[in-house]
Amino acid sequence: MIKICGTGSALPAKKVTNDDLSKIMDTSDEWISSRTGIRARHLVTTETTTGMAVEASRQALEQAGITAEELDIIIAATLTPDHVLPTLACEVQATLGAVNAVAFDLHAACSGFLFSMNTVAAYMQSGVYKNALVIGAETLSKIMDWNDRGTCVLFGDGAGAAVIRNLEEDGTNGGLLSFAQHSDGARGSVLACGNRPVQHPFAQPREEENQNVSMDGQAVYKFAVSTVPKVIEEAVTKAGLTIEDIDLFVLHQANQRIIESVAKRLKQPIEKFPMNLQACGNISAASVPILLDSLNKDGKIKPNDRIVLAGFGAGLTWGAAVIQW
Ligand code: COA
What we know:
Blueprint: E1 2-10, E2 14-17, H1 18-22, H2 29-36, E3 40-43, H3 49-64, E4 73-77, H4 88-96, E5 102-106, H5 112-125, E6 131-139, H6 149-152, E7 157-166, E8 175-183, E9 191-193, E10 213-215, H7 217-238, E11 248-251, H8 256-265, H9 277-280, H10 287-297, E12 306-313, E13 317-324
Helix pairs in contact: 3-4, 7-8
Bound molecules: coenzyme A.
């Protein structure tokens, strides 16, 4: 049985409310909250992606009751590591002393934690690894255009982590029941962020790309509300369940209206869709594990609860997994 045995999370200390933003740009709490549900987000001041990832990972390891040395694999989902090299996963490995783990990053934007979890599960199903640490960690504030009020107000910083184990010998049911995941690169330009241009002395200088996030908000909105219900149904069907069998839907925390629309299309009560976007904004790969950790710590998840985890975002990418707690 492939099971989440521990969770953890970390947010930067600095909380920035919509009212704080309205003091530095032409926006308002009313505009942001009525369109997105977001009221505040946490932004790094002294914290780093690695530091938050390590804090979240330590909590997850402690709850799982295993040591860093017992980890076989660490996958870090991020689009905002502290450095291009070394990778976030390797930096976390070094800090934790997870000397027996292979460590690498997986970049699938807001679907990153989910795709990383599914990657780990595939390794486990084929018997390669037993103990995994999966991290979603972001410092999105550094790739925002702080003059673009249409995007910068939506995002926040933070990290979440989960220890996932293959407990073959434990004999109980549950764990990861199914997953489904998709990409559509042809529509990728609706949510983009450029990279450093080619600058070497043997090439003509190329046009600088926008190195901040740019987004066609309405196109992303339409993409999310049309694909997320379908991929959830796909994963639930693969698990041999119906939507009514699901106790909780832990969705990527991009926008309250997107989540409400998914609930409506699935004909499920909104109470089954916990949210933390009001306080955290959209933290890309970190949003699902941070929310999962707070539900876990607050005792909102009961043993045997069936939970859908779903991610969607840049790429475009989207996916869902069904787990039994
Ligand atoms: N404060 C005040 N006004 C703002 C603003 C802000 N922060 N951002 C944009 N506006 C203005 C625009 O300039 C525009 O003004 P105009 O009509 O005078 O040109 C107006 O508000 C409407 O903008 P629009 O983009 O049409 O708003 P919208 O209703 O589509 O809402 C989003 C914008 C971004 C909130 C919405 O499209 C959305 O949530 N999309 C999904 C984005 C997302 O979740 N991305 C991440 C996925 S992983």
